[in-house]
Amino acid sequence: MTELDQWTEREILYPHGEAWLAFHEAPDEEAQEACKAQLTIVEADVKKAIREKVLESYHNGQNALRMRSRETSNQGNFPPAVRSTWT
Q1: For labelling, which of 24, 30, 39, 80 has a CA lying 20 to 30 Å from the CA of 62?
Q2: Where are the beta strands (DSSP E) in 10-72?
Q3: Which of the four pLDDT bands, split at 50, 70 and 90, describes residue 81?
Q4: How far is CA 79 from CA 70, 73, 76, 84, in A?
Q5: pLDDT tens readout for residues 56-76
Q6: Whole-Å CA distances, 37 to 24, 44, 55, 73
C-alpha cells in the first residue's frame, strides 16, 4: 500500500494541487486563464494515470488467476492434504 500511496501523491495529488494553487494565486485574469488551461491539461493527465493504474491492476489480477489455474490443474483432483505434501 505504501507504493500505491507514493504513486497517488506523485501522479495525482501533487500535480493537481500545484496547478490548482497556481490558478488561485494568479495575479490577474490573463494569468488565471493560462493557469486554468494548465489545470485542464493536468486533470486530463491525472485521469489518464488513474485509468492506466486500474488497467495495470486488472492485468495483474488476470495474470494471478492464470497462475493459480495452472497450479491447481497440475495438482489434479487429490485432497488438499495430499497436494500439500507435493509442494
Answers
A1: 80
A2: none
A3: low
A4: 17, 13, 9, 9
A5: 999 999 998 888 877 766 665
A6: 13, 11, 27, 54
- pLDDT of 69 reads 78
pLDDT at 84 over 60: no
Spans of all domains in the chain: 2-71
Q: Which three cell numbers stand for residue 45?
A: 493527465
Task: Record the cell numbers describing residue 4, joined without a space.
Answer: 500505491
Among left, alpha and beta (phi > 0; psi -120 to 50; other), residue 76 is left
Torsion, CA 29, CA 35, CA 37, CA 40, rounded to 10 = -130
CA–CA dist 30, 7 (Å, integer): 33
Arithmetic mean of pLDDT, 44-48? 96
Instruction: Judge if pTM exceeds 0.90.
Output: no
